[in-house]
Amino acid sequence: MVSFSYEKIDSNASMVKDGIGRRLLLCRKDREYNVGEEQKFIIPLSRTIVAASTYMSWLCRLEECRQGTIDCCMGVLGAQEVLWVLQDIKARINSKKLIPIDSMHHLALLNPSIVFTYAFPRDSPRIPYLLKKIGIPYAVVDEWYESDILKRIEWLNFIALFIDRKQESEFVLDRVREIYSQYKHTASSSPNVLWLCDVKGQVYITGGESYVGGSIRHFGGKTLTPDEHAKGSLPSTRDWVAEKATEADIIVFTRILPTANYILTLFPELKESPAFKNREVYGFGLGYWQFGSGWPEKWISELASILAHKNDEELQVFSRARF
Q1: Within its chain, how far is the Cα of 242 from the centroid?
Q2: 234, β-bridge pairs
Q3: Secondary structure (DSSP) of 146-199
Q4: What is the pLDDT at residue 321?
Q5: How far apart are CA 136 and CA 130, in angstroms?
Q6: Quick one: pLDDT band at residue 122, thresholds 50, 70, 90?
Q7: Which of 156, 158, 250, 296 sits in a 20 to 30 Å window from 49, CA-based?
Q8: Which residues pair with 198 in a beta bridge?
Q9: Average pLDDT for 297-314
Q10: What φ, ψ does residue 220 adopt, rounded to 5°?
Q11: 8 sits in which H/E element
Q12: Hey, what domains does the chain have and what are their CATH numbers?
């Protein structure tokens, strides 16, 4: 089950639970229901604000299905820090149709109908706490912690409920599910995939039950990981990476446009891996988060082609490490 829930009350109202379990009542007309809601919204909403570029990507995807969808959004928290690859969003920011929001004070002055935000840190989410403190309506999106690629994109449905785009979001989800099923067991020779990163000297490896690990298994590959049951990334060591180097047929280093030399400065033992010898080393592309979130079938098809050793495929979400 995906982490949010949705229950129809009648033709006018429904109850949803957001990513931290808050009961939010959505009504098409302002009526009293007394169903224990923590917040009530009269839908469809306009004057919305999103706190992540990935949510903006979702709105862009829904815009393809129904024009005018992006018009419901008035601003993006932290937009000035994002390298936008979505041309429509860049144009809207430049023309001031979409407002980059740089502080909670700025956000409060805009008086939004809702802020779609995220739960980080998980145990004590900072932005929801601040929004509650200043009295701004919000809903928590929690796709980041889903351990299945299809469950992650199902959060598109959550936002769609607030802006009357449920039919459009279901259309997108059906398309993604269809593409995902088409790539089952398409990998060549069950390659071992090492998916890793280095954050300020700390090594992280994806877990076997993460959305990445599950997708690699679905395509027919195997994830090299210290924990087959971990549902996210987990800390590891350089010694563990060195020990597994000769098993790595494919390496994905989770940084934007990494070079082979840069990766080897961090993990010199990887030079002996089949991945380096065959130049099957990858990183994230500039569009990893925006294209990969709004158009997850791109993420699916590109990762499947990497596991199938199709080195001539054009990549948008991923990138080939430069040698």
Answers
A1: 30
A2: 205
A3: -SSHHHHHTHHHHHHHHHT-HHHHHHHHHHHHHHHHHTTT-SSS--EEEEEEEE
A4: 97
A5: 9
A6: confident
A7: 296
A8: 203
A9: 93
A10: 110, 10
A11: strand 5-8
A12: 44-179 (3.40.50.1980), 183-320 (3.40.50.1980)
